[in-house]
Design goal:
With 278 residues, the chain is an alpha+beta fold. The chain contains five helices and 17 strands.
Amino acid sequence: MKSLKTHLLFVVIFSAFVFVLAGCGRDKLVSIAITPTNRSIAIGATQQFTAIGTYSDYTTRNITTLVTWSSSATSVATISNAEGSKGLATSIAIGSTDIIATSGYISASSILTVTAATGVTVDLPRTGQTTSYETGDDGALRKGVVWPSPRFTVGTGAGDDCVTDNLTGLMWVKMPDSTTMTWTEALDYANGLSICGYSDWRLPNINELESLVNSEQEDLASWLNTEGFSDVEADIYWSSTTYANDPFSAWYVDMYDSHVYNDDKTYFNHVWPVRAGE
């Protein structure tokens, strides 16, 4: 009987030992920590987040690829769950969002703040003004992309009826038609033009038309006629851009005083076709 009791005691102790060993092999995730925390990035930038798991045996492991990632404000930033890019956040708009890592019932979060881009330069051309009237004005600072020299180049051979603007790359008709037209007629005329071996002419939008302005010149047409163009009139030229406050009007540029405004589309103004350069 004593031998049987001893045997049973041994079985119980051995079973308990096996159970403990088995339990040690089933360490459970206790918590998650995300790095970096409270990160700030600019619009369009990306940020890699890392998830570190702490287990019941007090060990830690990188579980970035094992958790499920989410963003509380996907309009501000998104975060990837795709293989090879898990935890990579992409900023979209200014604001803040919680970046969340989840595994089962355990989760953690980190704040991601998206700010405006800094140090961004905009390649806008100079206005052309070189006379300074006050310290710090445009004539003194002359900010913007420097104009090439020459600014305009007249084509050769079959293309000598066209002029390329070396600043914008746009190609213009050398001698605009002197006939005035309504806005709709101007669109049709420009779209149907074939000159200098090209048939993709069109009416310029207001930004393209205004790019011809030289703010240093009192009489813009006279200056343009010395830059390779001919018969540019000191008058109003249509753009293809409709005036937002009145769909029956369109923007124009006055080639005399560089005035930019709008006119009723039924009025008769000049037309100056343009096309994209090569």
